[in-house]
Every structure is written in C-alpha cells, then in structure tokens.
C-alpha cells in the first residue's frame, strides 16, 4: 500500500526543521491533528443528521512559538514551502486567501470568540493527502487551533473544549476560507478516539465512540484515492447545501435532519412526497443516509460485517443517484472493489473526485487494490493511490 502515515517523531522533526529553516529558532510546541475518512453519513452534517467518521493516522503537524508583537509568520511545507507574513488584524474574512485562509483562519475565529492571542510563528508539515477528500484542510485548521489555544493558556483536554474548537474551525473555514462545509471533519479531527468510529449527531453536536476493531475481524478499510482533485469551494458542494435548505424551508423544518424525528416510515414518506424533483431526491438521500448510519452502528456493534457492507453499497447508490455527487472514477473504483471481493464499497467525503472506501477481507487487500487499479487503467483513468485506514486518535500535543 502506498502513502504511509508519518510516525509522530517524523512529523515532529519535519515541522521543527521547517520552523528552524524559516525562522532560525526552535518552536515552543508541536501539535498534530488528523485527517478523516467517513464510514457512512455523507452530506448529513450540514443537514442536522448523523455521521460515522474515523480519524486517520495521517496527521498535520504544526510547530509554533509565540511572539511579543502582533506579527504572524507562516510557512507551509504543504505547498512547496509557501511563506506568508502579516499581522493578526490581516487575518479576517476577505483579508487572506488560499492556504493562508485555512492555516490562519482559526486565529480569527478564536479571537472572535474572545481568546486573547499574541502574534506567532508557525510551520506546518503534513502527510494527509491533499485534494483526496480526506480532510487535509480540517487537519490544518485543527492543528493550528489546538496550538494557538494552548499558547493562549487555555485547556483543550475535555470534549466540551474540543467541541467549541471544532465549531470555531468550521466558522474559520466557512467565513475566512469561504468553503460552506458542515462540521464532520473538524469534529473528527478534534473529538475522535483511537480504535473507535465517531458517531456524531449534528443536531445537538453530541458524540458517541463506537468500538471498531476491523483487524481483529480479519478486515481492512481500504481507501482508494482516485487522484481526481476535489474542491469544496467550487460551487457544487454549496449548491447541494442550498437545495437542502430550500427543501427544509418548504417543509417548515429548520433542517432536513429534523424529519428524522417523525417516528414512522409512512410519516417520513408523506413529508418527502411534498417535495418534487431535485429537492425530493436530495432530501431522500439525507433521510435514508441517516438511517444507514444507525444501520452501520448496529452492524459494528453486532460485528455483522456483511450487513455493514450492504449499507455501504446502498450509501454509494444514494450518493450517486439521489445526491449526484459521485463521478466515473469513484463509480469504477467502487464496482471493481466489490467485484474483487469487498464486502461493501462507497465514495467517501464531499464527492466529485477524492476517495472511495472498501471493506475488504485482510487477505484480499492487495487483490482488491490491484483490481481497482486495473479497472482504472482499462477505462483510461488516473491510477489511484491506496491507504489502509485504522481508526486513530484526535489531535494532541506531540512535542
Ligand atoms: C466535506 C465537508 F467538509 C463535510 O462537512 C461533509 O459535508 C462532507 O463533505 C460530506 O459528508 O468533507
């Protein structure tokens, strides 16, 4: 399998080296926060629904030192060593763009929430694949938010502090970076637990940790990065979100996820029947996907992997047909993985490129990866990259 996660000491030394090279001094602290892969519950977060992501072992490392003035200096190993220098006051919606918005945006959101910050020097190093739908942006935001909160002398230890930080990172992404995303990625990066999937209820922001030891069950979660770059700021994602909001307003609810509390299938169908065309299809995806999250949680608890795979397959169909966020590369990967012995497979993340996941018997991992590569070649598509996703820990101080 390609693209291994860096062990923490490697990430620490890469971020520390970048910091020394840029600022000719040692960082005071290094924090790391992970990317994520979502098992099921796609496009449900901004609809007030359920999602079931895991944190990846792939992390972004942020080496930081405070300054006594209001200057902020950033260096990103993520994009060929980009550098930026400005002041705390430059960091605001409309004041910064591109990678600087993701990297510095949390400073703005923290200050908006009353956290006193001084200037700072910061260097990033990351092994979270970018543009692969594995939340490289959230990993950056969360590593920086953790580091800044710590410099400000505030604790990030308990889940309430983590939930607040996740909300601030979402605010930074929405308002400074201009990507209208929900909160799943930041919640995973800050609130996940090793060995567990994170059951996230976006209606009240509560979380539950669901034990998930795939290896003990003789299984692996294979991530197929189609290497078709996906972006959440290109309009397609935002259009899906707006359609859902319009549909919810038409039905007189705040969010489509509110329909999930209608306690009979008949009642939910009656509500959906009041919508037409695209709105009806989008809403049907949201409601059926919330039900599939419960199905996958039950399957994980019962260790019923066939049932889990079936729900993953159904999720992909719903995203392909009703939500229309898949693409040929994802469909080809999913079909080839299933045909080569995966118990289930689906696109994961925002869609329009990025990654798919497949639940595969351990001894078939290479075979499934080979079949997916062969199918991509045969269709003239880019050769995918592969990772094995193991449910990993949320962000933490690593030096
Ligand atoms: C992206 C977004 F950032 C998340 O908030 C979520 O909506 C996801 O797409 C789709 O489930 O990762």
Describe the structure.
The protein has eleven helices and 13 strands. Helix 4 runs antiparallel to helix 5. Strand 4 and strand 5 (82-87) form a beta hairpin. The mean pLDDT is 96. 41% of the residues lie in helices and 21% in strands. It has two domains: 8-212 and 392-397, Ribosomal Protein S5, domain 2 (2-Layer Sandwich); 215-389, GHMP kinase, C-terminal domain (Alpha-Beta Plaits), CATH 3.30.70. A six-stranded mixed beta sheet has the order 5-4-6-3-1-13. A four-stranded antiparallel beta sheet has the order 10-11-9-12. Strands 2-7-8 form a three-stranded antiparallel beta sheet, with helices on both faces. It is an alpha+beta fold and 399 residues long. The protein is globular and about 60 Å long. Residues 38, 42-43, 45-46, 181-182, 184-185, 232, 349-350 line the site of 2-deoxy-2-fluoro-alpha-D-galactopyranose (GAF).
